[in-house]
Amino acid sequence: MALPWMESLPVWGDETGKSKPASEAPVRLGVLFSGNGFHSTEWWAKGEGKEMELGKVLEPLSDYREKMLFIKGLYNAEALKGNIHSSQTGNLLSGAPLASGGEIRSGTSVDQFLARTYGRETKVPSLVLGCEKSNPSVHKNYSMLYSSHISWSSPTTPTPLEIYPALAFDRLFKDEVTKADQSVLDAVLADAKSLRGGISTRDQQKLDEYLDSVREVETRIEHAGQRGELQGWRPTLTVPNIPRPADGIPQDIGEHMKLMADILVLGFQTDSTRLCTLKLNNDHSSLRFPNLGVDYMIHHLLSHSDTADWLKVNQFFIQQLAYIAGKLDAIQEGERTALDNTLLVYCSSMLTGNHDASQLPVVVLGGGGGRVQGGRVLDYKEQPERQMCRLFLSLMDKFDVHPDGFGDAKEALQEI
């Protein structure tokens, strides 16, 4: 099991004169997605730094305004051609043209492009998580697989999506997954005890906190899978007529999302992975939210009206980003926090539920290893070159990956 970064443990590769010592915490990328856009009048930010004002959707991020970029006006030109959910989601992270008429073809997404190079340094090159199952149907001549996947390993291959928290956890911490395996912590306690005697008091405290957090997630995963199936589409049969299947997905969508958020943080904290996408729901989503008292309508239908319940659901999704940011910001890595060494990108495939993809909602949290200055609003709405892929080139630059171009963009956004 990989350890978190520790100040008192030297790392092979530390050499005098290097601009970035090997013992400096790595930069990570987390991309969060929710479908169907946001409330049409409450997704906004203005001002800068501590004085930045936020619309109601973004209020959960108030504590992180100084580490936030609110980006307006970026878009994917190819996404406008179909003007339907699938055609606006399948190329969100690639900017590629989408095939229709029964064929599936998109483009390699930015997370998987980075996984081929930067991701090779970790056990898991990229972690691809989700909280709603893929939809294999077809909608208005486009495959709904486009609506179900933001990460694509190749133009014809959506990256396998892990929606089971236990399996995502196992991928980070186990080499083989078997039901009889002991706890990850139980397997390494002897090594942890030996390590503890040779590190600083501060690192001993960090190690204890880390092991406690792993145990907490293990316990919650064990309990969560025992209570039922994923919320969303409701079948007509309410009582199973076959024996209960193996433990799987938490019944409560809030707990499901929180578990996936915890696993993302653990993956970054242990350096098991440095790249993660977390798709909180599908575009054209069927999720319901009884945890919020919004159980009468699925997410997709809610998105077509600016009701108080739609705003409540919007804030619930942004709370997941705030939760991850808070956990990362509480992890100290030398002079920076894990959030300072991370770029969290939150996006959707349309600005509002009426399919407006002429500009996309984008928020970036974190410092990218000290390379990104937060507390700013960037508006590209009136610029001729406002491709979403220009943002991806800017992000890749923070990972020292410098392709000649990506998707439909040749030049990064210099302000980032």
Task: Walk me through this protein's architecture.
With 416 residues, the protein is of the alpha/beta class. The chain has a single domain (28-235, 247-398), classed as Alkaline Phosphatase, subunit A (3-Layer(aba) Sandwich). The chain has helices at residues 85-89, 110-115, 145-148, 165-173, 184-196, 201-224, 253-269, 299-302, 308-329, 388-398, and strands at residues 28-33, 45-46, 53-54, 68-72, 127-130, 138-139, 142-143, 152-154, 157-158, 275-279, 332-333, 336-337, 342-347, 362-365, 376-379. It has a seven-stranded mixed β-sheet with strand order 5-10-1-13-14-4-15. Strands 2-3 form a two-stranded antiparallel ribbon.
Question: Which terms summarize this structure?
Answer:
15 strands, two-stranded antiparallel ribbon, 10 helices, seven-stranded mixed β-sheet, alpha/beta, 416 residues, 28% helix, Alkaline Phosphatase, subunit A, 12% strand
Head-to-tail CA distance between termini: 35 Å
The strand order across the widest sheet is: 5-10-1-13-14-4-15
Q: Report the structural category.
A: alpha/beta
Rounded to an integer in angstroms, the radius of gyration calculated over CA atoms is 21 Å
Query: At the first level of CATH, what is the class?
Result: Alpha Beta
- The share of residues in helices is 25-40%
**Separate helix tally:** 10
